[in-house]
Amino acid sequence: MTKTVFFEVQDWEENLLRNDFPDSQLIKEKIDVDNAGQFADVELLSSFVYSNLSSEVLQKLQKLKFIATRSTGFDHIDIEYCKKNNIVVANVPEYGSNTVAEHTFALILNLTRKIYQSVNQAKQLNFDHSQIRGIDLYDKTIGIIGLGKIGVNVLRIAHGFGMKILVNTRSKSDELSQKYQFSYTDLETLLRTSDIVTLHLPLNEATKHTINKNNIVLLKKGSYLINTARGGLIDTEALMMALEKNIVAGVALDVLEEEKELNEEAQILSERFREKTDFKTLVLNHILINHPHVLITPHNAFNSVEALNRIAHTTIKNIQGFINNTPINVVNS
User: Fold this and answer.
1) How distant, in Å, are the alpha carbons of 2, 19, 274, 286 from that of 258?
2) Is residue 64 located within the same domain as residue 103?
3) Do residues 257 and 111 both lie within one domain?
4) Most exposed: 70, 150, 154, 179, by fewest CB within 10 Å?
5) Which domain covers residue 140, as residue numbers?
6) Residues in contact with 276: Cβ distance below 8 Å, sequence separation at least 6, in sequence order
């Protein structure tokens, strides 16, 4: 029987893992240099991003043949050591692109149809419609900044709504543009033309403050700005200026600029992350939270039952594939 151990197991995934691997060990703690010696006989190992699988740790696992990280990223694993020692490593390449895209449109619809205000007004038995009149999405122009997997799903949904679509991205696909009938354009043109602007970029030195004081003034007056990617893509001071000058009609954010940086969205669900992050202070100190034209959700765009199940089920398939000599999602082949 293959010795299999899962580390950093959270409550939501325990039953799923136990069902497929009833003889495995499920451990809530991470594996590190201090406890690795206790698992010298492990052959198949699965962890999350807090387990630092360095060469120092891996050297203590002499029987290890396979690592299934329950994350997209694998920076916490010494890939070179694994290559040299014939340890196969597999990841979860994707689990929430449609999930985040759907949340993006939930925010768009909340803003454009004033859902939040409507619900609060109805609770107060106020049925005056004059302050809750919305706009149609049909035939409006949406500007998508970044066309990775999430951006493509936003594109797909926008096309279904009958929207006109502009895209600003580094890599272009003629096949996509023909299928969904959209145009590629520069950032300035997108900002000037779009009724709704939504960001779907990674955060790095090149993308930080993609929306800033210099270009936020280009936004079409009365437009809406959405960010479900990373808080640092928008300069918060620039955003406040746009709200004060009534350049934008509404803003929806699932991420904040001051938010602790993440490598994996699923980190938010871990006790270790929650212990280190004071969300309450972050939100209370953020002036945007009380602005009447701003909607903020607590970095929840990824958090669906289906997305979390995909993490567990992909990990299970990765392990089963290795056991059956048909490995999948291998990152060090």
Assistant:
1) 45, 39, 15, 9
2) no
3) yes
4) 179
5) 97-302
6) 260
User: Are 86 and 199 contained in the same domain?
Assistant: no
Q: Are residues 171 and 292 in the same domain?
A: yes
Question: Are 68 and 162 in a shared domain?
Answer: no
CA dihedral 141, 144, 147, 150 (to 10 degrees): -100
Length of the chain: 333
Q: 141-145 and 164-168: which strand pairing? A: parallel
Question: How sure is the predictor about 301, in pLDDT bands with cuts at 50, 70 and 90?
Answer: very high
In-domain check, residue 332 = no
Q: Is 259 a catalytic residue?
A: yes
pLDDT for the residue numbered 256: 86
Average pLDDT over the chain, rounded to an integer: 92
Catalytic, 230? Answer yes
**Domain total of the chain:** 2
Query: Which is catalytic among the residues 259, 264, 265, 286?
Result: 259
> Is 248 found in the same domain as 132?
yes
Report d(CA 272, CA 29) in Å as an integer. 10
What distances in angstroms separate CA 288 from CA 36, 96, 210, 215, one per listed residue?
A: 45, 27, 19, 20
Q: Which amino acid is at 150?
A: I
Q: Does one domain contain both 37 and 131?
A: no
pLDDT at 257: 83
**Is the pLDDT confidence value at 285 over 50?**
no
Catalytic residue among 103, 209, 230, 286: 230
Specify whether 175 is catalytic.
no
Q: How far apart are the first and last CA of the chain?
A: 25
HSE-CB of 122 using CA atoms within 13 angstroms: 7
* Together in a domain, 170 and 265: yes
Would you say residue 329 lies in a domain? no
What are 291's two structure tokens? 């602005």
